[in-house]
Every structure is written in structure tokens, then in C-alpha cells.
Amino acid sequence: MPKHSNPYFKKKTSLTRISISLPSDLLTKFDDSMVRAGYADRSKALQTAIHSLIDDYSWKSGDNTEGAGALIMMYNNHVYNQDKKSTRIQHKYADVISASTHVHLKDDNCLETILVKGDIRKIRDLAKHLSENRGIKSLRVNFVSVV
Ligand code: NI
Hints:
Strand order of the largest sheet: 2-3-1-4
Shape: elongated
Helix content: 25-40%
Low-confidence stretches: none
Bound molecules: nickel (II) ion
Distance between the termini: 22 Å
Mean pLDDT: 87
Strand content: 25-35%
Number of helices: 4
Order of helices and strands: HHEHEEHE
């Protein structure tokens, strides 16, 4: 059985203890948000925040990183036959697309979720190509770099 699929295998990570200085009001806001988000301790909440920062940077920078995520797109299908355009673009990027779903909403609106995995630059290109179409009402990217 490969290690990653064995529920009893836990990768050991070495931990480093750090000390940081923060403005008091920022720490109060952080603690409030942490509790509301359901974190039991600051370490775990900070780790998540740090991961988000790294993912955000990876997405924006031109680094050659691998990642995975979801593109969520809403569009009006009446504008220049957006369905066909979306499909045509997705065929071009088939090597980074793992799956996609299409939901028909009210009127001529459609919602597509495209699950992606692979070269971050190619995924960014895909998002750019999709967003250039006139029928797109919104395009959101949720992306995590694979570390
Ligand atoms: Ni539809």
C-alpha cells in the first residue's frame, strides 16, 4: 500500500518554534477570527494563514510551481454562445483539467466549476482565456500550491 493512502502513516514534520511581535489590536482581531473559524489554537490558525499567503504569492508570481484548485465561473450563455467557447478553451487545457461540472441557473445563466491540477502558469493562462470571453459574469479562482 503506498504511504499516502495508508491512514496510519503520518508524515513527520520538524517543527520550529518562533516568537513574533504584533500590534495588540491586530492580535485581538486575529484571535477573534480564529475562534469564529473554529481553530483551537494560534499555531494551527497561523499555519493556515501562512499557507494562504504562500498560495497567494505562488498564484500571482510567475514561478514554475505545481498546484491544484478550482475555477468557478458564472456566465450568460446567450452572449455569443458562451457554452461552446468555454468547451473549446477547456479542450485546449485538457492536461491541467481534472474535471468540470456545469449547472444551469435561472434565465440564461450557467455555473461551471473546473477542477485543475498541474503547472500553475498553464492554469493561470486558462483562467485568463476564460475571463476574456464577453459572456463571463464572474470568475473566481481558489488555488493551493502543492508543497
Ligand atoms: Ni447551462
